[in-house]
Protein: 2-isopropylmalate synthase
Amino acid sequence: MSDKVFIFDTTLRDGEQALAASLSVKDKLQIAMALERLGVDIMEVGFPVSSPGDFESVQTIARNIKNSRVCALSRALEKDIDAAAQALSVAEQFRIHTFISTSSIHVESKLKRSFDQVLEMAVGAVKYARRFTDDVEFSCEDAGRTPIDNLCRMVEAAIAAGARTINIPDTVGYTVPNEFGGIIQTLFNRVPNIDQAVISVHCHDDLGLSVANSITAVQHGARQIECTVNGIGERAGNCSLEEIAMIFATRKDAMGVETNINTKEIYRTSQMVSQICNMPVQTNKAIVGGNAFTHSSGIHQDGMLKAKNTYEIMTPESIGLNRNHLNMTSRSGRHVIKHRMQEMGYSESDYSLDQLYDSFLKLADKKGQVFDYDLEALVFMEGKSDREPHYKLQQLQIQSDSAEGGANASVTLNVAGEAKTAQAHGNGPVDATYNAIAALSGEEIDIISYQLGAKGKGQDALGQVDITAKYREQNFHGVGLATDVVEASAEALIYVMNLVRRADLVADQKQKILAKKELGGV
Structure:
């Protein structure tokens, strides 16, 4: 049996079905080209008969993709197959994927036919699709709940009709791994022509078992996995492509199979899909989540500083992410603080580690996560970090014009005890507010990320704004919380401005100490 597992990506078909709004043709092509760089063998990019927009998307992608095989979905109906074939005809090679339900509940309740009638429809669909291409895939929808005798009959008949890939979906995510693996094993044992087709699996995540079921299927002989980037898809989603790829790459010793996936494209592709589809990746998501290569436990951080493989079974670089991160929290030990100070260029003689660590713990208990600029402030501004902030919001007034566009803001800040006001225009209320604040501070601060969320539910929820801003090649993090999202935005920027002000004071203190050292301590 081959040790190659084909990766069949269905992000643009099953994945897109879960989105609140359909993607544009341009968006789909951008994702398709990313999937091609990622190295997927087959990409299922739409359901052409469903709408003119889907037809156009499939045709556009088929025309532009050269290194992956493009596939379109169709029901076991001639009009569906005609639409798929027509959309795909611009490609040199393509696959038609046709399907029909096989479980008793689907056959009786949805199709309202006998199993023999459904079998006849499946055979007819496969034979019809073979008129357009040699590459025909047939799926037994809801195979996980299909009586095994019926499933064996259907698979044998579809292969005999000309299907070269047979897909066994766990459509509703119902089976558990040993059960699903048993289904695959039974097919290999009982279907006489099974060697004439590649056995594929398509598992959903309703019980959180899509990846486990897919891996088990491969261990029992399946050689194609249908999956999506970030696991997006109907209901709880699909089998996650990045998890499958990294399981095979990391545990090749246990699995003994390989894929064509370029794992260094995983992170970039994940981020692109998340952004275009407007589906954030959960922080603790395996492989691509924000915490996947982040370490907070003091014991773990100590191990990572000594040898990265103590707590990382794969490197961030292996997925195209050139960093791992040690969160500085109250759980961090002295070794992490010492390491961060060394990374910033400080020697042990520049500070007292015991005093700094005590101050760090107090600050970490107050604010949760501590950043490099906080550590420097603790070293150079001992006893001053809790003083009154330099900038405070005193008043904010906004005027928006929906007819002409844009907005005007009037902002009054308390600057070191003195009230100062500035007015500014912007593309919208937040832009105008930020322009006014910039005029008051005189600082050139570049906003590199802006995130708006809500604390609570309903119209009385608090708006929370989190920003990351760059100042003199250093990133600063600000947060604002208010019932008015423009006010929350202003508070987040003012938070950053106070950090920047503190950083400038720290830089002055450092310069004075360096000058003193150069003069021999005089």
Q: What stands out?
A: The chain has a mean pLDDT of 89. Residues 32 and 61 are 7 Å apart (CA to CA).
